[in-house]
Amino acid sequence: MADPADSLLDLTVRDLLDSVAARTPAPGGGGVAALVTAMAAGLTAMAARFGDGAVAERADELRAVAAPLADADAAAYGGFLAAVRRPRDDPGRAEAVARARADTIAVPVVIADVAGEVAGLAADLVLNGNPHLRGDAAAAVHLAAAAAATAAELLAANAKGEQGIAERDRAREIAATARGLADQVDRD
């Protein structure tokens, strides 16, 4: 297993898979959703390079945003665990937990946003891109939709009281739209 201070992006695929499966709190669903979003963006960029350079460029930008979110999610969750482990009588505990919870909400919001945009780009490539790469573009839609749904689910788990409710609802909308695109791809 890799040192937790190392970036998930620097692990071999084998080490990454072992790290995800390890009995540790992170990487978890958020990190995986970020990496899946980055891979979906990569598939989208590859499929677009056989036709639409502007879409390929945007997909590359989204991949660059999504990939580091895997580490950001792990850091946010680690910060949350540290905050809730503070002694109950610590006068700063409640504020620390609220701040840390906000971080665990903020990262999945961005993952959902990016995944939703990737799903839209890829769905357009399924319909209008190179027909020989339709399967790759469709795979990107499905992967991005799954990542958006995962981010929305994690956001719902992290929201408490009023904190994170608007973000949860927005992520659920993005996930539903991405799922709709995946369903549309299946019908076409």
TrEMBL record:
Leader sequence residues: none
Top-level taxon of origin: Bacteria
* Database matches in Pfam families: FTCD_C
Return the SUPFAM superfamilies for the record. Methenyltetrahydrofolate cyclohydrolase-like
- Any idea where the Cyclodeaminase/cyclohydrolase domain is? 12-174
Q: What is this protein called?
A: Cyclodeaminase/cyclohydrolase domain-containing protein
Q: Which organism is it from?
A: Pseudonocardia adelaidensis
